């Protein structure tokens, strides 16, 4: 068996491995699992999605090849670059998996939570390429924790729903907002920065109260950059720099304020965003379309 095709599994037994799908957590190298850090330090190739993962990628040896497949913003004379299409990323991993080297595929948060790691694992399995999965801390739980929001408090929330908020034609169907609103628990929205107004409008149309607390958390866990703004479904926090995680529900009003590297505030009436009702809905007396005045009343 060629060098690089043998790795140690969790039980200590020798197993053929070429690709490791690793969860990078919220981006702080200190929050990686021991297993993830070990694999990064012995990697021959690291495939990552965005420059924000650089502190984690830096754990890899200098000799390791670094492949950035995500969107790259413009920087001085260097033009912006679009992300590699997902099908191309899968083909790249299959190709790299056949080279006999140790490949680390670094995914933000957890590989299988709103990170497309499942698609990549399916492609590797179909191609007969051995792989392992190293779970990470999903932003769905890490971001609220850093913002001082416990997603589970027995007296406030028994159910936590993690929602991929972006629009994608490959999703199997539309979200059942009526069912989601009836759960009466905590909703965590990932990848929903551009659609949170529509999500909020759909939840209100489904019967969720307009004064339901909402927290928007930007750059969770990054000292000096993390920002948390709290509002309501009727008076949403303004658009914050990506990545942004939203928490909807009673727990979003809590603030344990333990992380000293971030800022926390309440949305101002002038900055509040109003929700967008779903197409074809007619405002009723019970659930009128939120207005700027309504947002001001929510935050006097």
Characterize this entry briefly.
This protein has 300 residues and is of the alpha/beta class.
| Form type | globular
CATH class category label of the largest domain: Alpha Beta
Oligomer category:
single chain
Helix content: 10-25%
Total tally of structural domains: 2
Unreliable runs, pLDDT <50, ≥5 residues? 1-15, 284-300
Q: What gyration radius follows from the Cα positions, in whole Å?
A: 21 Å
- Output the helix-strand order: EEEHEHEHEHEHEHEHEEEEH
The CATH homology group name of the largest domain: Tetrapyrrole methylase, C-terminal domain
Strand content: 15-25%
| Major sheet characteristics | 6 strands, mixed
| Helix run count | 8
Structural class: alpha/beta
How many angstroms separate the termini? Answer: 69 Å
Give the spatial strand order of the biggest sheet.
8-9-12-10-11-13
CATH architecture descriptor name of the largest domain: 2-Layer Sandwich
Mean pLDDT: 87
CATH topology of the largest domain: Methyltransferase, Cobalt-precorrin-4 Transmethylase, Domain 2
What does this structure look like?
The chain folds into two domains: 6-137, 3-Layer(aba) Sandwich (Cobalt-precorrin-4 Transmethylase, domain 1), CATH 3.40.1010.10; 140-295, Methyltransferase, Cobalt-precorrin-4 Transmethylase, Domain 2, CATH 3.30.950.10. The chain has eight helices and 13 strands. It has helices spanning 34-41, 54-57, 86-97, 117-126, 139-146, 177-182, 196-205, 292-298; strands at 6-8, 14-16, 19-23, 45-48, 65-68, 103-107, 131-134, 160-164, 186-190, 213-218, 226-232, 244-248, 262-266. Strands 8-9-12-10-11-13 form a six-stranded mixed beta sheet, with helices on one face. α3 packs across α4 (117-126). The longest helix is centred in the first third of the chain and has 12 residues, at 86-97. The model is unreliable at 1-15 and 284-300 (pLDDT under 50).
């Amino acid at each position: 068996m060629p060098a690089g095709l043998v790795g140690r599994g969790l039980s200590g037994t020798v197993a053929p491995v070429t690709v490791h799908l690793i969860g990078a957590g919220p981006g702080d190298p200190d929050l990686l699992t021991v297993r993830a850090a070990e694999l990064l330090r012995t990697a021959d190739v690291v495939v990552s999605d965005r420059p924000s993962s650089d502190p984690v990628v830096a754990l890899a040896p200098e000799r390791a090849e670094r492949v950035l497949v995500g969107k790259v913003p413009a920087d001085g004379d260097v033009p912006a670059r679009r992300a590699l299409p997902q099908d191309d990323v899968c083909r790249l991993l299959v190709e790299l998996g056949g080279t006999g080297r140790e490949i680390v595929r670094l995914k933000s948060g957890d590989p299988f939570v709103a990170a497309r790691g499942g698609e990549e694992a399916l492609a590797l399995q179909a191609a007969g390429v051995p792989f392992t999965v190293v779970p990470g801390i999903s932003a769905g739980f890490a971001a609220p924790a850093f913002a001082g929001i416990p997603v589970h408090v027995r007296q406030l929330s028994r159910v936590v729903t993690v929602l991929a908020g972006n629009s994608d034609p490959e999703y199997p169907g539309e979200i059942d907002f009526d069912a989601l609103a009836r759960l009466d628990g905590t909703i965590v929205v990932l990848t929903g920065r551009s659609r949170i107004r529509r999500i909020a409008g759909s939840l209100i149309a489904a019967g969720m109260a307009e004064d339901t607390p909402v927290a928007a958390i930007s750059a969770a866990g990054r000292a000096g950059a993390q920002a948390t703004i709290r509002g309501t479904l009727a008076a949403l926090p303004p658009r914050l720099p990506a990545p942004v995680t939203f928490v909807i529900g009673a727990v979003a009003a809590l603030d344990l304020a333990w992380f000293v590297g971030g800022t926390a505030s309440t949305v101002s009436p002038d900055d509040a965003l109003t929700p967008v009702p779903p197409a074809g809905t007619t405002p009723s007396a019970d659930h009128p379309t939120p207005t700027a005045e309504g947002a001001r009343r929510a935050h006097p």
